[in-house]
Each structure stands twice: as C-alpha cells, then as structure tokens.
Specification:
The protein is α/β, with parallel strands linked by helices. It is built from six helices and 16 strands. Bound molecules: flavin-adenine dinucleotide (FAD) and FE2/S2 (inorganic) cluster.
C-alpha cells in the first residue's frame, strides 16, 4: 500500500518524525503494533517501525537511523510515496491499566510505542530515559498526555540522574499503596526491559514488554524473529511484539 509522506521533521541528526497520509481506516491501529516499511534505495528487506500516533487519519512514525534501511528512509521527501504494510502484531493490553495508574517505562527510541499508549490509557505516569539533555525528545507531548512525566538522563544533565529503571524503583518505593498500580508497560534497551520485567514479577504487578528482534517476512512465515517464551518459541512479528513479562523472562538469562 502506498502512503504519501505529508510531513517530515528532523528531531536531531539521527531521529526523524514522519507523518503519512493513510487511505485506509486508522481506527483499529493500536499502540504496540508496528508497520513494515519499504525504505527503498539500497535496503532490501522492509523494516519494522512502531506506530507512534494516529492523527486525523494520518500515521505518525518516529525512527532513528541505525543502518542502511533507516538511513534510506530518512532521505524520503515530502510528497514522495512510501510502500507501507500493516498494522501488524499484538498491541499492548490496556485493560490492565483500567481505573488504575499505569506506569510507562521507556528508554531512548523505545519511548515511541509508549506515546500512543499514553493516549489510550487513563491515569498515566511516564518514566522516560535518555543519555543526555540533548537527546531528549517528545517530552512536551508526553507531558500533555500523561499525569506525570519523569525524565532521566545517564549523565544527569537533565531531570533525574540515572536510568529509567532506577527511577521506577524510586517511584514505587514512594507509592504507599502499590495496589493503585494497574500495570507497567515497557520498551527500550534489553537491560531496561529485563529489569522492568523482573521488577513487575517480584512486585506482583502486571507487566507488558515490547520485544525487538530482526525480522524477515514480518507476517509470521519465516521464523526469523522468534524469541524464547515459557510456551516455546514465539514470533515477535505475530505473537508479539508485546508479551507478558512472565513469558519472556528466560530470553535475558545468561
Ligand atoms: C516491532 C518493532 C518495532 C520497532 N519500532 C521502531 C521505531 O518505532 N523506531 C525506530 O527507530 N526503530 C524501531 N524498531 C527498530 C528498527 O526496526 C531497526 O532499527 C531497523 O530495522 C534497523 O534497520 P537498518 O537497516 O537501519 O539497520 P541495519 O543495517 O539492519 O542494522 C543496524 C544495526 O542495528 C542492529 N539492529 C537492526 N535491527 C535490529 C533489531 N530489530 N533488534 C536488534 N538490533 C537490530 C543491527 O544488528 C546492526 O547492528 C523497531 C523494531 C521492531 C522489531
Ligand atoms: S519476521 Fe518472519 S516470522 Fe516474524
């Protein structure tokens, strides 16, 4: 399906914010799902990118240049058509957070699927971790959709000094009634999501984790994206990318 790139913004020299006109209904696009994008140029396979937001029938994606695919995508110009398939994958389960506080914990580019999620939930605390003050993005938008936003930076140049996981431990220590917490939702570097997944289990809080694996077909046919779960091998593109923390914990054990 061809979508027209209607808005493009460089957040910094590595991160790009795209809006594309969708000719399909966008009502059923849910936080945690991804689209499979043909980046063009020299890149061969499509690349998975999470839905960041849906605005008046437009899809918003934010991506970071990591290699050839995302580099080629960053060179697209407004008005150009992009071949995009989706949405694919299982979204976050928003039922867990209902009438309770949901805590979103994201690191770096992993905050992207959590932005749409913050709009689908009711009472939301977002803990967003970045390397430095200069690398912070989407802060004001999270402030507009969340009840509370905690920013951390690794070097202490803005917000809390440390990482998003440490800020989560700190926040929960202060929360007198842990029963107010409906769920934890996390996406980001493996170390962060492992910490949050384990933390959720220890504290008996429902925790959903968005997993990242290299993909081939993107539609469940090639098994390139499997991860270990308590129920055997599962495909990140089909059974995921969002999993219950209890299912995927063994992926991180050495
Ligand atoms: C479900 C899902 C949703 C995603 N959503 C976003 C998003 O919203 N925004 C965003 O910027 N990125 C997102 N990503 C990551 C994005 O798909 C990769 O950065 C992209 O595919 C890299 O392609 P490339 O050709 O630029 O880099 P490549 O040349 O393919 O790789 C560059 C480097 O990154 C590593 N790498 C590439 N893909 C992955 C991966 N999936 N897991 C671990 N390491 C990898 C490679 O090993 C290599 O070292 C998502 C990934 C998944 C699986
Ligand atoms: S990418 Fe082919 S099965 Fe997931």
């Amino acid at each position: 399906m061809l979508y027209e790139l209607s808005k493009k913004k460089a957040i910094n020299d590595k991160i790009f914010d795209f809006e594309v006109e969708s000719f399909n209904s966008t009502e059923n696009v849910k936080a945690g799902q991804f689209f499979y994008i043909d980046c063009g140029g020299k890149s061969f396979l499509r690349r998975p990118i999470s839905i960041c937001d849906v605005l008046d029938g437009k899809l918003r994606f934010i991506f970071e240049i990591r290699g050839i695919g995302t580099y080629e995508l960053s060179k697209k110009k407004c008005g150009e058509k992009i071949d995009i398939l989706g949405p694919f994958g299982k979204p976050f389960n928003t039922e867990f957070g209902k009438n309770k506080i949901s805590i979103l914990i994201g690191g770096g580019i992993g905050i992207i699927p959590l932005f749409k999620l913050s709009k689908e939930l009711e009472k939301v605390v977002a803990i967003l971790g970045f390397k430095t003050k200069e690398s912070i993005f989407l802060k004001e938008e999270f402030v507009s959709t969340c009840d509370k936003v905690i920013i951390t930076t690794d070097d202490g140049s803005f917000g809390k000094h440390g990482n998003a996981f440490e800020a989560l431990e700190d926040t929960l220590e202060r929360e007198e009634n842990k029963k107010n917490i409906g769920a934890l939702y996390t996406c980001g570097p493996k170390k962060l999501i492992y910490g949050v997944a384990k933390f959720g289990i220890t504290n008996n809080i429902k925790t959903q984790v968005s997993m990242e694996e290299h993909m081939g077909c993107g539609i469940g046919a090639c098994m390139a994206c499997v991860c270990d779960t308590t129920e055997g091998k599962m495909r990140v593109c089909k059974e995921g990318p969002v999993f219950d923390s209890k299912k995927i914990l063994n992926n991180f054990e050495e």
